[in-house]
Write a structure and sequence with these properties.
475 residues; alpha/beta; Spore Coat Polysaccharide Biosynthesis Protein SpsA, Chain A; 7-stranded mixed sheet; 14 helices; globular; binds uridine 5'-triphosphate
């Protein structure tokens, strides 16, 4: 009787929000499927759905109009002048102290669908390193192990997966013995999902008993950190700073004393690394000041005129692009959770497989619906203070987005070799180069060998002579 009543309530609720079709196949489901579908419906946020449908699904939100954008101030990659030089040195010392004191944790967001790459399995399991073909997860794990040794500390690692790749992620860590890390210091957790909509505002069904849904974006990390217990775990360990990065950048410097130190010295709550854009409309967020607050304006929302605007010396006025590397205070994540994680949702027009009204599977060749997600950089203006630090593209950015051509595994491997060659050359090692200047050998520097340029100088005696065509692995 009670079950009957609750089914009746759900039917009424769905009717009220024009989603009754979710129970269209109810009579054809077995008990387990019914239970499964009901629990998915109960997870839906009905207080929001009508608003999403009206403002994000059925229409594209109006552009913000003419707002006054000013480029946000940033710290250059290299300090200029005595005062700044002193500040950078002080920051590096403070950063090292905070890392050594166990105040820093690593957080990788690895819940994306990796549609463009088209790789079966979690992107973190993609083999990428130029000589040993190590996976992204292994590279990060080795970095974390090496940094823990260097700073004589424990650097816990939080990995956000999504319902689509959580079990595969767990499995990748399990079969690889947690990449030699202590399993107690590795915390894999799941992010939330949001329902997918047709253009007319109906929630799509993936099959007769399953709502079509997708991960709620990297901004979902704020809520997922709390829901999963990761935030509590951080608190228990005394973590104050979260070093946030994406799974698809093998060059990320996860534990950068300068970045952490500047963030802490300036008492910031969420800080970001940026680099000089290669061209005005490069697909990177733009760091702007809006009403005195740092805000990231997506490349697609940046008016062309502003994106193209140049200074007297020819450089871009809005020259800094976001590479999704942040330091986030644990206390900011806690505070935003108390406020219900008020990050806006963004719409993405996508091809979404689903069943039609007769229950037949439709695999659309054209975009047919809307996915919703939140972005981590929308938390920047919610921070009381925010530091922006420039980094150098060739030192810290090798995005893996596409299967081939730009931002692909191929380009990432070249960038990894390029950075390794640069580190060795700046320590005085001769690197064979082709007439066009590109590196004429394969080099891979394991994190155990060096985490930065300076580490190379202490290991010069271990570096062999390198000839054209060699494959060199330094560990
Ligand atoms: P992207 O926005 O590049 O998406 O994610 P993606 O899933 O890797 O690739 P496409 O767009 O489907 O081709 C940037 C980073 O944010 C993570 C991704 O795993 C990647 O590290 N991410 C993205 C999540 O963790 N969850 C999400 O819901 C979305």
């Amino acid at each position: 009787m009670a079950a009957q009543k609750s089914l009746e309530n759900i039917r009424n609720l769905l009717k009220k929000h024009r989603q009754s079709h979710l129970l269209a196949f109810w009579g054809q489901l077995n008990q387990a499927q019914k239970q499964n579908l009901l629990s998915q419906i109960e997870e839906l946020d009905f207080s929001q759905i009508d608003n999403w449908v009206a403002n994000l699904v059925k229409k594209t939100p109006a552009a913000a109009g003419q707002i006054d954008l000013i480029p946000a101030p940033f710290y250059s990659a290299h300090p200029t002048g005595q005062v700044q030089k002193r500040k950078y040195s002080e920051a590096v010392e403070l950063g090292k102290k905070l890392i050594s004191a166990g105040k820093v944790a690593a957080l990788v967001v690895a819940g994306g669908q990796g549609t463009r790459l088209g790789f079966e399995g979690p992107k973190g399991d993609l083999s990428i390193s130029p000589v040993k073909n190590k996976t992204l997860f292994r590279l990060f794990a080795e970095y974390i192990a090496a940094a823990s040794r260097k700073y004589q500390t424990v650097l816990p690692w939080y990995i956000m997966a999504s319902p689509l790749n959580y079990s595969q992620t767990i499995e990748a860590f399990r079969v690889n013995d947690y990449y030699a890390l202590d399993q107690n210091n590795v915390f894999i957790f799941e992010q939330g999902t949001l329902p997918n909509f047709s253009f007319d505002g109906r929630i799509l069904l993936a099959d007769k008993a399953t709502i079509a849904c997708s991960p709620d974006g990297h901004g979902g990390s704020f809520r997922a950190l709390r829901r999963s217990g990761a935030l509590k775990d951080m608190k228990k360990r005394g973590i104050e700073f979260i070093s946030y990065f994406q799974v698809d950048n093998p060059l990320v410097n996860i534990c950068d004393p300068l970045f952490i130190g500047l963030h802490a010295l300036d008492k910031a709550e969420m800080s970001s690394k940026v680099l000089i854009k290669a061209y005005p409309k490069e697909k990177l967020g733009n760091f702007c000041l809006v009403d005195g607050k740092v805000k990231v304006i997506e490349y697609s929302d940046m008016p062309d005129e502003l994106a193209e605007r140049r200074k007297h010396d020819g450089s871009l006025v809005f020259e800094m692009g976001s590479i999704a590397i942040h330091i986030i205070n644990r206390s900011l994540v806690e505070r935003l959770n108390e406020k219900g994680c008020p990050l806006p949702l963004h719409r993405a027009v996508k091809q979404i497989p689903h069943i039609d009204d007769s229950g037949n599977l439709v695999e659309p060749a054209e975009p047919n619906g809307i996915k919703l997600e939140s972005f981590v950089f929308d938390a920047v203006p919610l921070a009381s203070k925010s530091v922006i630090l420039e980094t150098l593209r060739e030192q810290e950015f090798a995005p893996i987005k596409n299967a081939a051509s730009v931002d692909s595994p191929e380009t990432a491997r070249q960038l990894m070799v390029g950075r390794a060659a640069d580190w060795l050359e700046s320590a005085g090692v001769t690197i064979p180069r082709k007439p066009d200047g590109s590196v004429d050998c394969l080099i891979e520097i394991a994190p155990s060998f060096a985490l930065d340029k300076d580490d190379i100088k202490t290991k010069l005696h271990q570096i062999p002579q390198i000839k054209s065509g060699d494959q060199v692995y330094l560990e």
